[in-house]
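Let us practice reading a record.
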Amino acid sequence: MSVHNFARFEPRHGMEAEVRTELLAVVSPTRTEPGCLSIHVYEAVNEPSVFFIHSEWRDEAAFDEHTRFPHTVRFVENISLYVTHPVKGDRTNEIA
């Protein structure tokens, strides 16, 4: 059963462009990871400065491996400078 991860990113005031840049930069290398089934970046319709990543992984082990790749480590370090809260994702299983 695949695992889905959802993460919300709320930029600090004036840091929207930096957040967008970091999010878009991490997508391509993540898509090449063997356990990544899909990854997409979203911008909230009613809150245009709030962003989300939704990713789907082969299994928990694939997501755990993802967190150790250099591009992911670099992303977390960089994005942390621009958002209002620590990076946190919610891993989920599809139920319907």
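A brief commentary: The chain has three helices and four strands.
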